[in-house]
Specification:
536 residues, alpha/beta, Glucose Oxidase, domain 1, 17-stranded mixed beta sheet, 15 helices
Length: 536
């Protein structure tokens, strides 16, 4: 009996574990052959027709647009064409933007030179230490004196600086803050840690205000820091202009592995440990002068990126402060020599769909049908460079993100993949249930009542090796906690090749999907209650 009892306990524990490890929907749904609604809305949806889609795709995917790469005349030409079309559809620019264009300003930041030597031995960024170009300025430094300054904190309750002059000095600090033997912070007087532990920038801003030339940080969990920084060190980092301003308010910083920190401390190691422990347990900080030869030569390289998001707007009625954002990226990967990567499917298809959905939404408004919530139709730039346009928008939004109900994103809907090579009435749906089950349910209901498509959730699986959930513009909204739904037809042999041309687009298939997206957007904008976000 005891064994049976233990088996039951084990069974329920396993079931509880499985339930807690949620796997997002990854099956396929297809509505029954129910009669689909025929009303004034369905007649408006028919304005999204194959001829109109074809006209836009053929222009955007023509050689004259040069592959629409960010920062090129071809990209500008495409942007001007899109804006002129939106104007002809009687769509208004977004509030505060007179010409449809939201300027997108970025910098690529990367190390041109990064050298750190202790004595005559040169250490390696990422392996022995971590120094990020986005957090640093140019620096040429040779010194034989480093100051250990405890935790680098300057607070009324506890200070490592006291009256010690650190101007133009290199300081060495620990992460965190002093905690006594009872587990209480010397700053908060409780077990709860202060902002000094939660935000390293607070220490770096303080150091900068004191005139510190460089902050060296001893990292007990160096491997975690290194793994998290790998991409930023090996590839250029995108920096928003306002983030660049913030970076200049911080002292230069380098994260040291414990091994390298020990090499730097040399014979002063025990003295530093003693000073650290005294600060922790007694709340009394005492600087320690470390004599060792340190050379740091770092030079940051940057290049300006200028682009434009294209924003049109349909103002809502009684719920106009709440906003639905409809997106597709209009940029592509440009040219290689004389070869043009026209990007008909990626993503002239999604761009043309959003443009005509916007036109249909405006047509519905002109007929007095609504919408109740406002709708922002945004053609974003720089997706191919790392979701830059959507990243810019969520950091400088036209409408408060707290009032942004959902993002509906469309990317590559003009072709069929191998799985559906003989079908046109399907679409992959990604992310619909991850942040809002209501959003998922709404889309399923719309499909059952109006569209009748096969909805395939294969790529919504959180273990999808393709990682499509994080590879298009909706992801930047999802990172901010905004429910998203992503429509995508899958990849094909012409993906990111010069053969992704307009004559290969399946315009009938595109029209079916675009109409479905129109219906879903319409329901999001007109439902009595806004969709709810899932509880964490």
């Amino acid at each position: 009996m005891k064994k049976i009892y233990l088996v039951f306990i084990l069974y329920f524990l396993i079931q509880e574990t499985l339930l807690s490890q949620k796997k997002y929907l990854s099956g396929v749904t297809k509505p029954s052959s129910a009669i689909l609604k025929k009303d004034i809305l369905s007649s408006i949806a028919l304005e999204i027709d194959t001829n109109a889609l074809k006209e836009i795709v053929y222009y955007l995917a023509s050689d004259s647009c040069q592959g629409r790469e960010l920062g090129t005349p071809g990209n500008d030409r495409a942007a001007e064409y899109i804006a002129s079309k939106l104007s002809s559809y009687h769509l208004s620019p977004a509030p505060g933007i007179s010409d449809y264009f939201q300027k997108v300003m970025f910098k690529w930041i990367y190390w041109k030179t990064m050298v750190l030597k202790i004595g005559d031995f040169e250490y390696r960024n990422l392996w022995d230490y971590v120094s990020l170009s986005k957090d640093n300025q140019n620096l040429q430094l040779d010194t034989d004196e480093i100051v250990f300054l405890g935790f680098g904190i300057d607070d009324p309750s506890y200070s490592d600086y006291n009256s010690f002059d650190v101007k133009n000095k290199v300081i060495l600090i620990y992460n965190g803050e002093p905690i006594d033997k009872n587990g209480n912070s010397k700053i908060t007087k409780k077990t709860e840690l202060s902002e000094w532990s939660k935000d390293l920038n607070k220490k770096l801003i303080t150091a900068h205000s004191k005139g510190v030339k460089l902050v060296l940080i001893i990292e007990d969990k160096f491997k975690e820091v290194s793994d998290a920084s790998r991409k930023e060190i090996l590839s250029p980092t995108v920096l928003l202009e306002k983030d660049e301003i913030k970076a200049k308010m911080k002292a230069n910083s380098i994260h040291l592995s414990s091994t390298v920190a020990t090499k730097l401390l040399g014979s002063q190691y025990k003295k530093v440990i003693s000073a650290r422990d005294k600060a922790k347990f007694k709340g009394k900080s005492k600087p320690v002068l470390i004599k060792n030869k340190l050379s740091v030569h770092q030079q940051v390289e940057s290049s300006q990126i200028k682009g434009r998001n294209i924003l049109s707007y349909i103002e809502g009625s009684d719920k106009k402060d709440e906003v639905i954002i409809l997106t597709a990226h209009y940029d592509h990967i440009g040219m290689r020599g004389k070869e043009v990567f026209n990007g008909a499917d990626d993503n002239a298809s999604g761009t043309s769909a959003v443009m005509l959905i916007a036109k249909a939404l405006q047509s519905a408004k002109e007929k007095g049908l609504g919408p109740r919530r406002s709708i922002l139709c945004m053609l974003v730039t720089g997706e191919e460079k790392g979701l830059l346009g959507s990243m810019y928008y969520v950091n400088d939004p036209v409408f408060p993100l707290a009032k942004t109900i959902a993002n509906v994103n469309t990317d590559m809907i003009g072709r069929s993949d191998e799985k559906y090579k003989d079908k046109s009435d399907y679409i992959y749906v990604i992310g619909s249930d991850r942040l809002s089950q209501d959003l998922h349910n709404l889309n399923e209901t719309v499909n059952a009542e109006r569209s009748g498509l096969t909805l395939d959730y294969t790529y919504n699986d959180e273990n999808d090796p393709n990682l499509f959930y994080s590879r298009s513009d909706h992801y930047k909204f999802a990172e901010k906690g905004i429910p998203i739904i992503f429509f995508f037809s899958g990849v094909h042999p012409d993906y990111h090749r010069i053969t992704d041309d307009a004559h290969k687009i399946q315009f009938h298939k595109m029209s079916l999907i675009a109409r479905h997206i129109f219906y879903t957007t319409w329901e999001l904008a007109n439902s009595e209650e806004a969709i709810r976000r899932n509880h964490p």
